[in-house]
Amino acid sequence: MPLIRPFAGLRSRPEYAAEVIAPPYDVLNSQEARLYAKNRPWCFLHISKPEIDLPPDTDPYSEAVYAKGADNLQKMLNASILQQDILPLYYLYSLTMGDHEQVGLVAVANVVDYNNNRIRKHELTRPDKENDRVCQIDALNAQTGPVFLTYKHQAVIDTLVKRLTAESPSVHLTADDGVIHRLWIVNDPQVMQTITSTFDGLDCLYIADGHHRSAAASRVADKRRTNNPEHTGDEAYNYFLSVIFPDNQMQILDYNRVVKDLNGLTASTFLERVAQYFDINYSQEAFKPQQSGEFGLFFQGQWYQLEIHSNKIPSNDPVASLDVNLLTDHLLAPILGITDPRRDKRIDFVGGIRGLSELEKRVNSGEMAVAFALFPTSMSALMAVADAEQIMPPKSTWFEPKLADGLVSHLL
């Protein structure tokens, strides 16, 4: 079976798209989602986070929540807010945030290729989050949250996408955060065959974001394959909803760190210890790293520029040489005592979309003692880790803009 294929998407009718689309289910907590969807009866959060329609003390992982999501999906189908396309199609999805634009292909990707690592991973998954997505897919009999995939850009695909997006889109809207979303339908059989065969010629695809969604899709497919004596491999459950972008259009922002205390050290001792691994310079303004190996340090109202000693950067190790690991291995762990950033309650993570002012705010408020600004992880570094079948540290990448939920879903 091909790496990707077209599918009959479940889409919001164009005139309702602005009312339907919503941030990804894992970007908002339940309270934020409840406020966002207030007075928005067709907002997709009623499907993706249906606990907002149940009492506030409802366990978001309870059967009642998944059943409510399925009920809300059926209501939107009955009202013809959502409709399924008749024939398998591809879709092109453009996101514009400020001066940045990226155009991806909406398709379904082969679970078998995910299982055999042709669709490559770089993160561990948490069992509770994975189980949640399995229950959600099973209850809805649909995949409603797309997996964010990328590939090494190809001229033939670039040329084709440029030609197809010169036409008027089926959907064109601006979301609450100012991001412009546009969607085109690709229904020419010859063009669809070219897309399928060109992608099938790629060595691999890479998961940028959506490890829990793809892992859950694999588990659902395995269960349904086992329970289907007529299984052929062509069933919808053998594929998972994806939006696939070329690597040269991806935008990764910094993912910064804040720490509650100095691990019992005085300010002067802390800086002395840091100087064992880094060159330290005062900065007159908030310091945003301009290259790998540079870090911004903020504490006691002062910004510093840190540059790690070159002999501390390992060669030929795609994981240990990541800036997030350089900071952990040479500062967070040996100086501040944070050896497991995944579980340590003394550390928190701040997406670069919030800016360096958020780091200052967290420290100046007294909530945190020290903040670190990082240089964004590169796409080439992410791919190198995935190619080596290794795992990146938690909170290594922050992709912007975010895909919207509700534009296109995949019924099983």
Molecular structure report:
A hairpin with a 2-residue loop joins strand 4 (90-97) and strand 5. Helix 4 packs parallel to helix 6 and helix 6 (127-140) packs across helix 9 (211-226). The chain folds into 2 domains: 4-251 and 400-411, no CATH class; 255-375, Conserved hypothetical protein from pyrococcus furiosus pfu- 392566-001, domain 2 (2-Layer Sandwich), CATH 3.30.1760. The chain has helices spanning 17-20, 30-36, 45-48, 63-78, 111-115, 127-140, 155-164, 189-200, 211-226, 267-274, 323-332, 356-364, 379-387, and strands spanning 4-5, 10-12, 82-84, 90-97, 100-110, 119-120, 142-143, 147-151, 171-174, 180-186, 205-209, 239-246, 252-253, 255-259, 278-283, 294-299, 302-308, 347-351, 370-374, 398-399, 408-411. It starts with a strand and ends with a strand. Strands 1, 4, 5, 6, 8, 9, 10, 11 and 12 form a 9-stranded mixed β-sheet that branches. It is 30% helix and 25% strand. With 412 residues, it is α+β, with helices and mostly antiparallel strands. The chain contains 13 helices and 21 strands.
